[in-house]
Fold this protein.
Amino acid sequence: MIEYLIFLAISTATFALFALGLNLQWGFTGLINFGHIAFMTLGAYTTVLLSLKGVPLLFSAIAGAIVSALLGLVIGFATLRLREDYLGIVTIGTGELIRLVVNNQDLPVGDAWISGAFGVQSYAIPLSTTPNLFFRFLMIGVLSLLAIVTLFSLWRWVTTAQKSVTVSIKKEFSSRLVVGIILGLLSVAIYVAGVVGLYNYNPKAGLMLLALLVLAFVFWRLEFLVKSPWGRVLKAIREDEEVPKALGKNVFSYKLQSLMLGGAIAGIAGAFFAWQLSAIYPDNFQPQLTFDAWIMIILGGSGNNIGTILGAVIYFAYDALTREFLPKIVPLDVERIGAFRIMFIGLILMVLMIWRPQGILGKKEELTLGK
């Protein structure tokens, strides 16, 4: 149970990062990206191939993020001056193009060249060696501090909606309270699993701590950016790019920055995805992963970073519960069970679009859905 919770925590943190990059591009800037997996693929392969060449893991991951950002630069220069639908077409094509190139080309794995279809294995993973007792206690202390900061931030986020007496804010407070309780209980469960995993050292527990720290840092900086003048320009571009143009803003430059930063974040997610799998193959990077990220954003609320993380939590909770209990309830074989699970989450999305089209934490007035 402890190992499974750690696995779910790493998966959720990785795809929360992945979805945060897409949310910056779509939720805040209005850029249609159906090939977000391309950035994750480049980030993952760059990280593991450089680490096999002896480059330290930190620099390998940073290089992966830079390469992913450069892909955003190339795509941006090719499409951002055209109509919005061109970006969607180019990105989905780029995602498949990169996967097929990796699958059909030889890759420099260590001192040899190996066919990409065989995948890449036996690469270094962070914190894979068992540390001494002092370092384990230090890691537990860092996890404890992260848990305290998370719970305190959730409490502040919930209580800020209580200061107004308007009906809409009261409704928002109720939804925030429910979300805060759910995320708080999950944080406690992950904290307990992490403490046990770090004390009786499990390398995956170390990877979980690193993934949660990176997710917390990226979320913190994104929240700062989207509330800054830079973020307000992105929102103005999303609503009507002619307005910031009239005010003298370089809309193309802001779109390019958003595409590159979102791509870099997805590249970092790719590094964690590769480290969790311990071996990567081209088929690990199917287009479905992009649409999984879209599901997370739609569930939580487009243009809301906390909503994106909530969407990732809901998605992986749904995935774990249905994978465990659905075969016991529905008398179907494995293939049909998989199709049924996809169909059911589609039904959930349709109901959500009718009941709350802006997502669980999204705002109608901000996304022009109420106009």
